[in-house]
Amino acid sequence: MPFDLILRGGRVVDPSQKLDAVTDVAFAGGKVAAVGSGLKADPGTEVRDVSRYIVTPGLIDLHTHVYWGGTSLGIDAEEFCRLSGVTTAVDTGSAGPGNFAGFRKHVIEPSQVRILAYLHVSHAGIFGFSHRIMVGESEELRLMNPIEAAKVADANRDLIVGIKVRVGLHSSGTSGAVPLDIALEVANEVGMPLMAHIDHPPPSYEEVLARLRPGDVLTHAFRPFPNTPATAQGTVKKAVLDARERGVLFDIGHGKGSFAFKTARAMLANGFYPDTISSDIHQLCIDGPAFDQVTTMSKFLCMGMELSDVIAASTVNAAMALRRHELGSLKPGCVGDATLVTVKQGQFDYEDVVGEHLIGDRKIVSEGVVIGGRWWHPN
To answer: Which GO terms describe its molecular function (predicted)?
Structure first.
């Protein structure tokens, strides 16, 4: 099959193949066709000189809110992804079983960017969060809809990758872990992983972790006090280490209130890296402090993570969490998505959710994306 597109001469960083080399990447029929030096172009092949850029598998943002127009939190996926280098946006619970059909028809299906979703166990998802109104959907147990959630998840397995629930004082009030137990019942019924949001207690970080199964995701994993994974002495809590040992995954989910430099420094100092880095982008944090996926990745780069580890946490690790192994890799036969970035040198001001600033010396900048083997929205 002739190549549709060749990215020529970029620094290809693909942790799924332990690859970091200057080489070419070719695409055909919507998939990665070949990786190697001097790939031959056919008469109809588009060839792009990307020698100034780093080429990675298409970035996956494991925690977004992109039900634009359907919820007050939703942002426009295509605009966000073009600017942030994201080729797969995973919506985490914006929609529940009562409104997923609208999310699918009006947002996901028309989108040029791939959108996957965790389905909220609450009937209408996250419906009551804006600058003026903040109502925790999990606080009202009458909204928990496990029977319909299982039906909708089963009927939409092409797009739904798991079940979402939000617990904590701001999202479940005094209901504690009850919504989590209901969501786990749904996840077990449909054989899908669960993503759990956590904010202020109740429940405690430990109570949530104790319930999670191998392959389940705890998002907002590096959140500030209270409900932080680190002790006052700067060590990692035993419950956190035990959960990782049994296969629970730890996702960043930066957002408006869920990421602190103090927590991250403690965790990284102990060698406890996040499994996945995600932005939790929505209307309340897109203008700061999260901004986008590459800014969130940049914070970890500036805190000492190696570039390859940062990229892995936004590509192959996220694909594994989604159980979509055709994503997050530039192996031939995988989905033909790629992200082009540069790492700028300078002085960059980063802020966490509690107002602490970090002056970093590097910034990851999106320079363009390939989606489905085609150059998409070139800068």
So the answer is: deacetylase activity; hydrolase activity, acting on carbon-nitrogen (but not peptide) bonds; metal ion binding
